[in-house]
Amino acid sequence: MTYPKDLLSTRAIIEHGRYALIPPEGLVNNQLPFFEKCTASIIASPKLGASFVQYLIEMEAGGKTTKAFGGNGIESFVFVREGTLDVIVDNKKYELTQGGYVYCPPHLGMILENNSNSNTKLILYKQRYIAVEGIPEPWLVCNNINNLEPSIYEGMEDVTLIDLLPTDMSFDMNMHILTFQPGGSHPFIETHVQEHGAYLLSGQGIYYLDNKWVPVKKGDFIWMGPFIQQATYAVGHEPLSYIYSKDCNRDPEI
Ligand code: UGY
Ligand code: MN
Question: What is the CATH number of domain 28-145?
């Protein structure tokens, strides 16, 4: 790093409690307890207004966590953006490659290990599970997005959706991947109670957030709070694709 050639500027937009756009250029690395040979950027937390915590983690070769992440009522999720990862839950090892993921239910925690010779890039997520009497707890899910068949989104051939977790009442969250071919868009501007933590895996677009159009691209993170107006048009030459969280299957408390 050296002095910039021009005035300092940023595309980041932070509206506490409403929404945020966090581009990769502004990310700052943190050290976390029990994460060895890892750098972590915390991209969403209750301090922003989110009900969950989301991280971008880079694990060096030999990097690992030395204490279980999640458990005691906290459900967790890890997705491999680049490289490979071993995830150990309940003494069982799950070997992930790029596109692989593990969802860990709230009574279990996961240990992460990079046993390869190169860096691994992860998306990590945790939130407090909302139990409902009479509904069984969710179960561990391990898969790779390359094994899942995308479905056509809202009848639009150039937009596809992948659900990473089961659409079962036991689950109070899901992770999805939406992919828009250039020129593709949402069918309408959404306004809904659910939050999203969205990480852009590829492409470029113009995103409608809180009644403003904002340019976005690969590597950006968008937090959308409850009832924030949202939709996108994909632009450029590559599909716009993002992985996003969504809370589901629960009746809000009053
Ligand atoms: O599932 C969703 O709510 C999704 N369509 N939202 C979004 O892409 N902003
Ligand atoms: Mn939405």
Answer: 2.60.120.10
Over residues 10-61, the pLDDT tens digits come to 999 999 999 999 999 999 999 999 999 999 999 999 999 999 999 999 999 9
Kindly give the distance from the C-alpha atom of residue 119 to the centroid of ligand 1, in angstroms, as a whole number: 31
Identical fold at 28-145 and 147-247?
Answer: yes
Q: Which residues contact 181 (CB under 8 A, 6 or more apart)?
A: 158, 159, 234, 239
How is the chain split into domains, by residue range?
28-145, 147-247
Pocket perturbation via mutation, ligand 1, pick of 176, 190, 232 by most ligand atoms within 8 A of CB: 190
Q: What is the pTM of this model?
A: 0.98
Q: Is the CB of 222 under 6 A from ligand 1?
A: no
For ligand 1, mutation pick of 196, 214, 216, 224 (most atoms within 8 Å of CB): 196
DSSP state of 26: G
3-state secondary structure of 113: strand
Please tell me the residue having the least CA distance from ligand 1 atom 8: 231
3-state helix, strand, coil in the chain (%, to 5): 0, 50, 45
CATH superfamily assigned to domain 147-247: Jelly Rolls (2.60.120.10)
